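Side project, low priority. Logging it here so it doesn't get lost.
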Amino acid sequence: MNTAQAGTLESMDCLVTVSEAASGTGVKIQITGSSAARFKSAMEKKVSEVIASMGVKDIEISIQDNGALDIVLGARVEAAVKRLMGGER
């Protein structure tokens, strides 16, 4: 199974790991870290928006958060997905 990552575990950042999922399984999002308890639903919404805008339907996403802002989270997800799809390295 192919995987890709973007981000770091530094403060105010997040590490996003994405993996291919079997066709028809949908999007699975797992969020852990400092902000997960308070902002999980908002983070899931942001990730879902980014994934939908990229046209991705089947993917597994794991996020280790250390206080990343919304815009940082979105950028990390986008970068990881592009790397998974064979784009930027």
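Brief comment: The first strand starts at residue 3 and ends at 7.
Revisit when time allows.
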